[in-house]
Amino acid sequence: MHEFDAPDGTRLAYHVFGEGEPLVCLPGGPMRDAEYLGDLGGLGAHRRLIVLDPRGTGSSAVPADEGSYRCDRQVADVEALRVHLGLDRLDLLAHSAAANLAVLFATRHPERVARLALVTPSTRAVGIPVTGETRREAALLREDEPWFAAAIAAFEAIEAEQETDEDWEAIVPFSYGRWDAVAQAHDAAAAEQENEEAEDGFGAEGAFDPDATRAALATLTSPVLVLAGELDWATTPGIAGEFAALLPGAELAVQQGAGHYPWLDDAEAFASAVAGFLDR
Fold first, then answer.
1. pTM, full prediction
2. CATH of the domain at 33
3. Is residue 47 one of the residues assigned to a domain?
């Protein structure tokens, strides 16, 4: 584990995997500690992964100001990490909710972004909604799965705002390309990796200005990879395509058979796609 100080004095931690050119990695959640990323399916064989524990998660300190959990305010943490690492420009990878932070960093510091990889990205920062109908269409792709009947019933209860705690547990398999022992263990560890207070603060009022972010992204010249999972219902390939269309230097890749955590579903395909993009 390595540490550095954020501009507000909060001590932040990061973890290093592999060797080679550095790739700064931001975990999603939002505000989930970096442990769930692992080494991103062996991506550390291609790059030296610099994996940040966001403030208040993992080995990073809890900030004195709870308002600093807000996504736009965490841009300063990423910039402080860049300075700490002595990098003029970053190759940056962000998963899920962290894509919001990554694109805000890119709009505020475009000259500091060499390449940007957005993995099954959340779209809150750019104002692309993911509707219940979109999720339902994605869920129906899994109708041959043995867990499907219980999961789709739970989804409908949630949509009707009549859910129980068990319903939230029942829909978890929709997030994985394969609901096997690896996926189940990955999900079981999630409760210990989350900071609910930080999660609530991440998207607090004022965190996002979609119109301004879209306008700024339209001028971004850095190459961007938007990687979607074929079966992901959180960010479907269609939603990911809308996101990619906002970025003039973006390409869309859809990993077949993958869900929201594509490095778990096919580590080789995931690492190959990301490394290939970074090395071009």
1. 0.96
2. 3.40.50.1820
3. yes
